[in-house]
Amino acid sequence: MKDRYHHGDLRHDLIEHAIQIISENGFEQLTLRGAAKQCGVSHNAVYRHFESKEQLIDTCRMYVTELLTAYLEDAVKDQEPASPGTLRELSRAYVRFYLEHPTYFSSLYRNSPVKLQLTMEDTEENYPPFELFRKSCRSWAEARGRSDAECLDLLARTWSLAHGLTSLLISPNVEGTLDWEQCLDTAFLQETGV
Amino acid sequence: MKDRYHHGDLRHDLIEHAIQIISENGFEQLTLRGAAKQCGVSHNAVYRHFESKEQLIDTCRMYVTELLTAYLEDAVKDQEPASPGTLRELSRAYVRFYLEHPTYFSSLYRNSPVKLQLTMEDTEENYPPFELFRKSCRSWAEARGRSDAECLDLLARTWSLAHGLTSLLISPNVEGTLDWEQCLDTAFLQETGV
DNA sequence: CGTCGAATGTTGACAGTGGCAACATCGGGT
DNA sequence: ACCCGATGTTGCCACTGTCAACATTCGACG
Fold first, then answer.
1. pLDDT at position B1, please?
2. Could you tell me which chain A residue has the CA closest to the CA of B114?
3. At residue B114, what are phi and psi to the nearest 5 degrees?
């Protein structure tokens, strides 16, 4: 296995193993030395590819963000952008993603390093999953002649509900069962009146 | 200052300083040795009062939970339990509390060690702030002859919205301003139709 | 093909962390 | 007056992230 001095693609391998550790053992278990060992490499090799542990984590975060974004996009690929169903499917997919990958949740939002633009103007930099929600809100609002303020309000409520519902469902100490899809349905029923 | 061998009430002092460190410098900065030094005491003295760092944190969590609970109770002390306003005031107070003490948020919900009972039956052990929401939901639902399922649904949506909105507002990388009280108003308007 | 610099890995060290064990000091009940 | 338990201290350990110095390999250029 470890017959060469050089690893080949250590950077990639490190990310893979880091993600796997987070995914299997939780975020707190991620260790530079542990990840390095799993890659069959000595601890300081990490620093040839990442400046610090935090930067490795950032990279993992980006990776997970891409997974989530793709997951969300796939969930609404057949929807009319301005239909009421799009926003609901986005919310559902958001919750579902973290139910399938619970350990990603804390790693992504720890210290909330995610950039969110709470405005309806287009901006260059925004957290991509949030951007999907924002665009969907705008499509929906524009098709109905709603103001920017109403739209922003809708965006905040939708995102908060999806995010809050997720953190509620993810929590390891929650007992009882909740029909969370029904929850979202109720909310969107109230919203759209349909 | 440090003329006596024994501290007097080290346990209490440790909690105070730990809370202060979390409050001022953020959760990650809390260190057993640091807190001990601030109390003018050598590092291992902590272990005469707490089994581990995690247990000290747990105790701080309880302290903050009591603060939050009192804050919530105070916010609705003049409300009719079954009035639509109660649930809204609870939500507002929940968000307001963490806007006033942002650093408490991550310390309370890190690893989500909070016990939540997602049922409408009375249980002995439940996270007190959540219990306030639950009781308020039940009062509201019973006064209107709603089913337990509808009530649980309301509870989940209300809690999720408050919690999600908070985490959205707390996030250090959020730009733009949001009228979060209006957000809550909209949601409760949809809910109650009033 | 040979050489040399840049990229990549390794070893060793350091300070800081949580936690354990053994010892020191105090204070209250007999 | 004594002594035992509660409380604090010192010293140590394994582990962590990070830095510096050294080793190996790859690839571009002659």
1. 41
2. A173
3. -80, 135
Q: Which residue is nearest to nucleotide C25 (CA to C1')?
A: B5
Q: What burial letters (b/e) apply to A113-143, b meaning 16+ CB within 10 Å?
A: ebebbbbbeeeeebbbbbbbbbbbbbbbbee
Q: What is the pLDDT of residues A16-48, one digit of tens each?
A: 999 999 999 988 999 999 999 999 999 999 999
Task: Tell whether A128 is within 8 A of chain B (Cβ).
Answer: no
Distance CA B106, CA A14 (A): 28
Please name which of A66, A37, A38, A36 lies closest in space to residue A50, comparing C-alpha atoms. A36
Count of C-beta atoms within a 10 Å radius of residue B33: 11
Query: Which one of B157, B166, B188 makes the best mutation probe of the A interface by having the most chain A beta carbons within 10 Å?
Result: B157
Where do the domains of chain A lie, and which CATH numbers do they carry? 10-51 (1.10.10.60), 60-192 (1.10.357.10)
Question: What contacts A147, CB < 8 A, 6 or more positions away?
Answer: A141
Answer whether any strand D atom is within 7 A of the Cβ of B43: yes
- Is the CB of residue A20 less than 8 Å away from at least one CB of chain B? no
Running along chain B, 194 residues long, what does each successive block of 10 average in pLDDT?
A: 72 96 92 97 96 95 95 95 91 97 86 83 89 95 93 96 95 90 95 77
- Give the alpha-carbon dihedral of A180, A183, A185, A186, to 10 degrees: 170
Please, what's the largest Cα pairwise distance for chain A?
A: 66
Distance CA A93, CA A76 (A): 9
Q: Which of B180, B175, B150, B185 is nearest to B163 (CA)?
A: B180
| Nearest C-alpha in A relative to B166 | A160
Burial category of A145 from C-beta neighbours within 10 Å (exposed 0-12, middle 13-18, buried 19 and up): exposed
Q: Count Cβ atoms below 10 Å from residue B125 Cβ, excluding itself.
A: 10
Q: Of A42, A23, A24, which is closest to residue A33 (Cα–Cα)?
A: A42
Q: Rounded to whole angstroms, how far apart are CA atoms A171 and B109?
A: 9
